[in-house]
Amino acid sequence: MVDEEYAAWVQTFTPGPETAVPERVARLAGGAALEPVWRNGIGGLTFRATEAGSIRYIKYAPRTLESSMEAEAERMRWAALFTPVPRVLTHGFDDEYEWLVTAALPGRSAVDPRWVERPGDAVRSIGAGLRALHDALPVEGCPFDWGVEGRVANAAARGIEVPSSLRTAPATDRLVVCHGDACAPNTLVGDDGSWSGHVDLGALGVADRWADIAVAAMSTEWNYGPGWSDALIAAYGVEPDRARLDYYRDLWNAT
């Protein structure tokens, strides 16, 4: 991604210091200093809350049918038994909004300017981190699903009709517990360049590993520019499967 494109991308998702702090967020923060750090496409906000050297993150967003922070909290509590993910401190909702407060993990997002300037290191960390996540989370006993049938049903509940060509998945390569939103920003990278954890786990569930690999590889172009997809797949430890990559990219874009 060239500097101008990256700046525009950051501007889209980074709220400015003038961002109003919702009353609920202020109450959750207590006396902590608040800094807005992320804005999503539906008006949700994430704030960093710092107090006496302790850092928390407060997510606050309108309720939607696509996912919920209650579901994310449940998934993080389960995943934390096996792999580094944020520790849930509290969560809740009212008629219109929901919120989730977590403890900070070490590391910076893989789209922090430091790593955008070092895309080779970033994509290797994302690929290796995704493989480690898949290897660590046990499919047997996982109570969550992210399979094609469930994703299509969720889309239908939101009024989205998925093309018939995407309603049947390719033969499964390997079932894993997928992240569910393996885009580059959701891998954290330590100062040594190795992955240090994963965030935003609201869709975590069992699916073919290519459902995650395809999204992670696709996101490299958004965040680092063309040409990094295969490097991420190599860091994951497999050869590119073009048919599965194409299918799961199309499914992601359709749902």
Topology (SSEs and partners):
Layout: H1 3-13, H2 23-29, E1 33-39, E2 45-51, E3 54-62, H3 69-79, E4 88-93, E5 97-103, E6 108-109, H4 113-116, H5 119-136, H6 148-157, E7 175-178, E8 187-189, E9 195-198, E10 205-208, H7 209-224, H8 229-236, H9 242-254
Antiparallel strand pairs: 1-2, 2-3, 3-5, 4-5, 6-8, 7-10, 8-9
Helix pairs in contact: 5-7, 5-8, 7-8, 7-9
Structural account:
- The protein is of the alpha+beta class.
- The protein is globular and about 50 Å long.
- Helix 7 crosses helix 8 (229-236) and helix 7 packs across helix 9 (242-254).
- The longest helix is centred in the middle third of the chain and has 18 residues, at 119-136.
- The protein has nine helices and ten strands.
- Helices cover 38% and strands 21% of the residues.
- Residues 6-11 have low confidence and may be disordered.
- It has helices at residues 3-13, 23-29, 69-79, 113-116, 119-136, 148-157, 209-224, 229-236, 242-254, and strands spanning 33-39, 45-51, 54-62, 88-93, 97-103, 108-109, 175-178, 187-189, 195-198, 205-208.
- This is Aminoglycoside 3'-phosphotransferase.
